[in-house]
Design a protein that fits this description.
CATH topology of the largest domain: Rossmann fold
Distance between the termini: 49 Å
Number of strands: 13
Length: 387
């Protein structure tokens, strides 16, 4: 009788396990694959308070923006319809994410990291109903579009500092798994200051003429700087003849040098600055009006070494760095501490959450109206749980 009871108990437990597995595992698999929840183990509810400068940046961006009314977003979406899918319109309705797919347009098969991040936030908090535009282009302002003439703002990864209608959010790379992999690599291959070569090192694509100038300085002063262009370009033959090209490298190579120049690309070079701040090397940053969401609190000679916009004083600044080794170690330590305090994945997600909440609070959208529209209009596609 006792054996029969044990057998029945085992069968019952097995049936319960099978039922639980069928009900819960698909959801668990979805949450792991289509959200970033697994990367927020340290603070799964995003309870860490935001730094005051983060709120200041968001308030400034919203103050430099036009109306965020539904009518304004609708007009702006129509005005920029030719930019789809690089500029996309989204709605959050009852904590579900929708994407607007214009007529004759196609919904991309893969989610962007920003879409995945927003969906992640909906599993943590109840977000306001809202209607907004996200630009996946590298640069803002947009080419041939006057920012002041846009009816509504765009959420952008980088912009000219005083640009109108650009609300900064974390860039597409640093809000996804690519950046998490870079962070792990930097942490794993950390090199003490004393073991780093006392020289500047840079590798990158040819997206601005300033990068060509950096490589020319490298040819002239090889004892100071090793800089090469590595990405293919339509001027490849010309660059090769001038000796400005080289082999690609990864963060393991960069970490071996004390001085790491940071040059803007099409816009800010993301997440190159974040990586340099974490590297425990010193960033040499030319003066620039191009900014990302975390630039506001960074100070010259505290978090980086400033360089003239045209690199005219680069060698002079490298001479200063070599003669000021203790100061440079302090700058590197300050930069690392800032990155550790404000640029971890939790911080990036928290900032995006704050932007969305602030935008939604300003918009004060009619949730019932949005709900009715996404239900009736076929151009709105629910992407909350797409595989």
């Amino acid at each position: 009788m006792k054996k029969l009871f044990i057998v029945e108990l085992v069968c019952l437990v097995t049936l319960l396990w099978v039922y639980w597995h069928q009900v819960h595992v698909p959801k668990t698999r979805y949450l792991k694959q289509e959200t970033a929840l697994r990367h927020l183990k340290q603070d799964p509810q995003l309870k860490k308070p935001l730094a005051p400068w983060m709120f200041e940046q968001i308030r400034e961006d919203l103050a430099l923006s036009a109306s965020v009314s539904l009518e304004a977003v609708d007009l702006c979406s129509f005005k920029l319809r030719g930019y789809y899918p690089w500029i996309r319109r989204y709605r959050l309705v009852e904590n579900q994410l929708y994407c607007y797919v214009p007529e004759n347009g196609e919904l991309p098969q893969e989610d962007t990291h920003t879409e995945k991040a927003i969906r992640t936030l909906t599993h943590i908090r109840r977000l306001p109903d809202m209607d907004f535009l996200v630009s996946y282009l590298d640069a803002y302002p947009l080419e041939s579009v006057v920012p002041e003439e846009l009816p509504a703002p765009l959420l952008v990864s980088g912009k000219i500092r005083t640009s109108y209608n650009g609300i900064l959010i974390p860039d597409e790379r640093s809000i996804g798994p690519w950046w998490l992999g870079e962070l792990r690599m930097i942490k794993k291959h950390r090199i003490p200051w004393g073991q780093k070569e006392q020289k500047a090192f840079w590798r990158g694509g040819f997206t601005k003429e300033l990068r060509r100038e950096l490589c020319r300085i490298s040819l002239k002063y090889p004892e100071y700087l090793d800089a090469r262009i590595v990405a293919p370009t339509n001027q490849q033959e010309e660059l090769e003849q001038e000796g400005l090209t080289g082999q690609r490298c990864n963060w393991i190579d960069l970490l071996g040098y004390r001085y790491l120049p940071l040059l803007d690309g099409v816009m800010c070079a993301w997440p190159a600055f974040q990586g340099r701040l974490f590297s425990q090397s010193v960033t040499l940053k030319p003066d620039s009006e191009e900014v990302q969401w975390f630039y506001r609190p960074l100070q010259p000679y505290k978090h980086y070494i400033p360089v003239a916009k045209d690199l005219s004083d680069l060698i002079e600044q490298l001479d200063w760095a070599k003669a000021s080794d203790e100061e440079c170690q302090t700058i590197a330590a300050n930069a690392y501490q800032f990155a550790k305090d404000h640029l971890m994945f939790v911080d990036i997600m928290s900032y995006l959450l704050a932007v969305l909440n602030s935008y939604g609070e300003k918009q004060q959208a009619n949730g019932q109206l949005l709900k009715d529209q996404v239900a009736k209009e076929e151009l709105w596609v629910n992407i909350q749980r797409r595989k």
